[in-house]
Design a protein that fits this description.
The protein is an all-alpha fold. It contains 17 helices and no strands.
């Protein structure tokens, strides 16, 4: 739709098409900002598309008319909007939408079904279940998603991690205990999200275990995420660990993570450490991260 307007769909010649495209953008932004009934707030895409003076279509038409655009520009823009709203690529996939709907049911039946699906033989069902459970944050959901962090399929673990990061406010002491166990899991792609959760949930009691991971883990990815988590936890002891990682780890990505954590800490010695790294590190990417935080 925007392409048609830009190509002169507004009915004029020369710069008229570009003006129509700009007017369409302005009308779209104004309509979205006013919300479905003319009030402030962002309405879901397509809400009230037809519906009278308050509908999205009517607001777009009025916006274009105020900008001086003709009927051709209006038709072109509305054609594009209608195509976007009905496109199968817009919004969550049908399976994900159904999983979210189950999680949002007022009773426990939908959530119970999703928890069962987390153990399904088909990993795609497990992915959908982990995604949907994000919308039902409670300690029982946390327990189920922590189980999913040991799933053999990487995508399931990634989605479970994302959902857990959205509900750290409902973590309990039992959640912290289970995360501590996952820090010692033999699979590095399970240890890494566990370390990330420690930082996101600010579980200060696990800072010593994170420090050990940042300095000693055999795999570089857990060292990255434990370094970042130490930065989120803060503290002078953690700064000393991060300095050691930033100046001695053999992997540039790990050093970069430690440098970024030091910069975000903004501790008294942060700038001193960063300047030393900028001077001595042989990797330009690490140097750039240091410069960005000085």
């Amino acid at each position: 739709g925007a392409g048609r307007v830009g190509a002169g769909g507004g009915g004029g010649a020369g710069g008229r098409g570009a003006q129509g495209e700009a007017a369409g953008h302005r009308a779209w932004g104004a309509a979205r900002a006013r919300g479905p009934e003319g009030g402030r707030g962002r309405a879901p895409l397509g809400e009230g598309l037809g519906g009278g003076r308050g509908g999205l279509a009517a607001r777009l038409v009025r916006g274009l008319r105020r900008a001086g655009e003709g009927a051709g520009a209006v038709r072109a823009l509305l054609g594009g909007v209608a195509g976007l709203v009905t496109s199968p690529g817009v919004g969550p996939p049908p399976g994900a939408a159904r999983a979210q709907a189950l999680a949002r049911r007022p009773d426990e039946a939908g959530v119970a079904r999703l928890r069962v699906l987390l153990a399904h033989d088909d990993s795609e069902f497990r992915v959908l279940a982990a995604s949907g459970l994000e919308f039902h944050p409670d300690p029982a959901t946390v327990d189920a998603l922590l189980d999913a962090l040991i799933d053999p399929v990487n995508k399931v673990r990634n989605v479970a991690e994302r959902s857990l990061l959205a509900m750290t406010c409902v973590f309990t002491e039992e959640s912290h205990r289970r995360i501590a166990e996952l820090l010692d899991h033999p699979v590095p792609l399970t240890r890494s999200p566990a370390a990330r959760l420690v930082g996101a949930a600010e579980i200060g009691g696990l800072s010593g275990r994170l420090a050990q991971m940042a300095l000693e883990d055999d795999e570089w990815l857990p060292r990255v995420w434990s370094s970042r988590a130490l930065g989120e936890l803060g503290g002078s002891d953690n700064l000393e660990v991060l300095e050691q990682v930033a100046t001695s780890d053999e992997k540039n990505r790990v050093r970069a993570a430690a440098v970024e954590a030091i910069g975000e800490l903004r501790a008294e010695r942060s700038e001193e450490i960063l300047r030393a790294v900028i001077e001595s590190d042989q990797d330009e990417g690490v140097k750039q991260i240091g410069r960005a935080h000085v």
